[in-house]
Design brief:
By secondary structure, the protein is an alpha+beta fold. It contains 7 helices and 27 strands. The strands form 10 sheets. A 6-stranded antiparallel β-barrel has the order 3-4-5-10-7-6. The chain has a 4-stranded antiparallel β-sheet with strand order 2-11-13-12. Strands 16-15-27 form a 3-stranded mixed β-sheet, covered by helices on one side.
Length: 390
Amino acid sequence: MSGRFRTIALLIVCVLLFSATSSPAARIKDISTFKGVRSNQLFGYGLVLGLNGTGDKGGTKFTIIGLVNMLEKMGIHVSAQDVKVNNVAAVIVSATLPPFARTGKKIDVTLSSIGDAKSLQGGTLLLTPLKAVDDKIYALAQGPLIVGGYVAGGSAGGGITKNHPTVARISGGATVEREIPLTLKGKKEFTLVLNNPDFRTAVRIAEVIDVRFGDHLAMPLDPGTLQIKVPDRYRHTVVSLLADLGDLEVVPDAVARVIVNEKTGTVVIGENVRISKVAVAHGNLSIQIDEKQEVSQPQPFGTARSAEGATPVRMEGGAIVAPGGATIVTPESTVQIEEEKNSLILLSGGRSVGDLVRALNAIGVTPRDLITILQTLKAAGALQAQLDII
């Protein structure tokens, strides 16, 4: 009984795994966003203090000017000519302000050196205001840095560098001081924006929403936009409506596409890619040319004289004829040509991407060869997909 029970349990697990992997449905909130609900970028100019001699050198005048201005605000009057420090580095601080971020929320910041600093390890960011494109301050950043690398060197000029020591990060290093006005209360309709616009996907989303809420709430405006009305029963609980709507599952559709990255040799073939009936054969042609110098060394004290005296060096039929007793260097080239011979493979029309991959693997193609074959299939009109080369 125990063996039979294990067999039945194994079959049940296999069925569950098959049903879970065979469903290509995705949640609406994973393939779309609501218009207006977005993040915003912030940036600012700051100074990192406390570096152990790895900061900006004297050539970066903007670092000295920024340090002098900071000291002036603190009541310390100094001249820029008198300031010579290498424990300070000028940085650009960037952050992302998420939607619905309220005053007091902590956000992460990234610091990038803009001078000639060698490392930001061990530094502390001075209070830095972060602005948006409207030139208003939305957050304040300050705190010790976390650098995922280091640099170490000697006086002779050698050294070791790990990762990127001139870029650092502060987890929760900025505090939100200004909110971006965004409210959901009283909304009568929303606009849903698809991440990958597609006519069929937009229609399917509208059908799923209407079936779930029992009313004509969703109206596709174009392949990437849907207008959604708020039912009366959700007028005061809009958040619940958006939560329920985002959890709905839909099968997204997409245009058949093949992505080729020539620089890295990466090929990504989409699920809907099909090919027409075509015969494919691919063989590599390699040409190898070896150059070497041959030395002709005569016998010791060898002579080759005619009645008129020593025989001069001359050319006969492209070859060098050397006189007796002279050492001659002659070039010699060897050319080898190898052509790989593969059989012709017939690919039936309407095959899936799995059949295409298996057929191409049968002739032993590499990713580089696959790029050439895909381009040739597209030129022959046999590849029923969009070929994008990046």
